[in-house]
Amino acid sequence: MALKDRISAETSVADGLAYKCRTILTEAPTAFEAHETIARMLGGQVDGDVATFGFWTPELLDHRVPDGDVFLEVLSPKGPLDLTRAHQDVTFERVYVPVARYEAHSFAAVKGMRAGTREEGGDFYALVWRDADETWHRILDPLAASLPFGAFAPAELYDVRSMQAARKDKAYFEALRGDEPYKFKPPVNILQLHVPTATAGGTLGSLTRQFERLAERLEADLPRDPMDELFLGYDAVQLLPVEPTTVYEMGPDFWHEITGDDTEVEVSLTRPDTTNWGYDIVISGMSTVNPVLLESGRPDELVDFAAALHNFPGRSKMLIFDVVFGHSDNQGLKALNPHFFAGPNMYGQNLDYKNPAVRAILLEMQRRKVDFGADGVRVDGAQDFKWWDHTAQTLRHDDDYLQAMADTVQNVAGTSYKPWFVFEDGRPWPQEDWELSSTYRAVIEGQDDPDVFQWGPLTFAHNTPFIYGFWLSKWWRIKEMLDVGENWISGTANHDTLRRGTQVNPKLNINTRLGETKMEILDKAYDNPAVAMLTYTAFPGVPMDFINATSRANWGFIRNQDDQYGVKVVSEEAISLKWQVDEYAYSVPANFRRLKELGFPARADLARFLEFLPALVEVTDYDLDHIAKLLNEVEPPLAGPGYFDVPVLKQIARAWMDDMHEYCNVANRVSALDPNQTQYMLGLRNFRRDHPWLRGNLTAEDHFDYIKPVNGRTIFTSLRHGPDGRQVYTITHMEGGDTEDFDPLRLDIPGLEGAGWVCQLRTPNIGPDYISGPIVMRDSMGLVFTRGGA
């Protein structure tokens, strides 16, 4: 049946929505409360055989667009539409449906539209308006439930109710149901993942299968291999952002219209294939999933992943979303109307949080996203949520908005709940002295929830634990952690700190005791057995590990969409070649294949080019034409394509990003995993889970210090006392030379004296036969003893 015969406009329903909008705006106590209610009506929603659509459209008022020029555009593929194909040309039938408007809101209702499900694709839609020159303009749905071709293309009408009704973890949520919304508590520890590099498949579907296979292996009591151990022993999994990100600046567009008229349009469709670390978002589409992460093109994959964690045998795992609402990339200007933005910043654009409609829509985006089934939310860059106080002529932090984020009530499987919240907040960053002046407690102290968390000082960026003197230079921060760190995320290895490590100048005072090569040093610095022991058995808070660190995989700034600044970004990332790629790694046929095809067959060839590029970017003030000219004049000539011009430089930059993305995949490390290290790390995590009281701040009875005099090494000692009478004693050699032969249990530490100590954990560089007694401790060694307890 043709689309025009299948669907019909339900004008009375649309008029009713517009009237309801008018009533709410008139009667609500405040403008924000009005828009908060209206936000629930926005987007494309399915109710039986009728679909309703709501848009916030202040731009129509700006352009004085009359009602007769505004329509809902409905698009339906005439032939098969396979979302798993890389490219296809598809003809869509097109019908324009009238809308009902009230002030800055537009509504439509349509009977007979197909809603997408896991098994079947749905019709697509957007709002369109016509100007006096008969030119059509499209307004996209920022609250869409499905965006198979990204945030800059028409949305797919999706049956969210059916997706929720079919979820496999309903029993998990139903068990939490009560008279009041359930409040999730902090997990014991967290595994941080970047979906595209966490598995060979690079999708949510492949990640779900990884956890399902692991669950089956556990239930069958099969032996654990090192790859299993990377994923085990965690109470929660935190995904780097899974929202739609930026697209290629110069194309190709994933939805490209070739020809069309009022009744049909031919579209060239490309399956989204950008690579991004997740933080370059455009705000539009935050309610749904980045299509790059969906092997099936269905958002159900995120629900499936939540279920795989919640149904994990023995102990359910929490799912934590990482959300980015503190800024938008500049591309967001093309996806949203100008009223969303409050001016430029270092990332792109500030958002206008004080606009009640914007505020309400952002919170509604968050609510819909978390309803995919997340138990916790990590808020990226909370210090960036600011508004301009015109009276005082200064920027102020919008702590009320952060509180509103934490107060948002979710509903899954009929259960209302509030997620556990973590805020990354380093205010007064970007003030120059932020590392000194930040307390990392602004949100903790500003909210009433005793379980609200922030990233701690050793978790924040700019931590480089492989530079000599790092640990004693951070002693004042460590003391803070001991005193007030129970509501901090702890650990030194995450997506921020690992990337920061790859940017360190190798000429600094590097701790060469960590390894023979720069790669070994970097790997061991962020997967350090002594640091992990300290984090899991001594420090308070909730430890978090980044799988690219624990697998000793590579990591960096991954984004292949740039055209204008792509070469500059690569020049800034070039130093990571020294830390993460040696001659052997580069020579592996599967690695850096694009750069090899461009004329860099050996690492030395690429390294020489990357020595020149950053210097020329700086001295020419990023003049690409001048850079290319100077590169062509280098003697002896540089390896590469033979002749450098601006297009070639951009091609090299794109090849670097695509090659690095493949190089960073955790699956590449399977054969290189050290079973002694992975087993040890799992033992640490299980120890923390068996001693959850270690999360609390140290008490007056507890001890933490470093051995004095230092004598060229930093050795921490910790003695903690549990509520059941158990004592946990930890000693770790953090950096420096070897000790003399000494007995760790004979140090002058109050409470250590006496017998009964049992060695529970030893770093892999200490033999399993060590039980107690004298030992020579070297860099990265550590021991954990316990005594007493029920």
Key features?
alpha/beta; eight-stranded parallel β-barrel; 31% helix; hydrolase activity; GH; GHL5; hydrolase; 20% strand
Radius of gyration: 28 Å
| Count of runs of 4 or more consecutive helical residues | 29
Strand content: 15-25%
The spatial strand order of the largest sheet comes to 12-13-16-19-24-25-26-27
The termini sit apart by 72 Å
Biggest sheet character: 8 strands, parallel, barrel
Shape from CA axes? globular
Low-confidence stretches: none
**Average of pLDDT:** 97
Helix content: 25-40%
Going by helix content, strand content and strand pairing, the class is alpha/beta
What's the total number of strands? 32
Characterize the quaternary organization of these chains. Answer: single chain
Q: How would you characterize this protein structure?
A:
Among the domains are: 566-663, no CATH class; 699-787, Immunoglobulin-like (Sandwich), CATH 2.60.40. Helix content is 31%, strand content 20%. α2 (11-27) runs antiparallel to α3 and α8 runs parallel beside α10. It has 790 residues and is of the alpha/beta class. The chain starts with a helix and ends with a strand. Keywords: Hydrolase. Pfam families: GHL5 (PF14872). GO terms for molecular function: hydrolase activity.
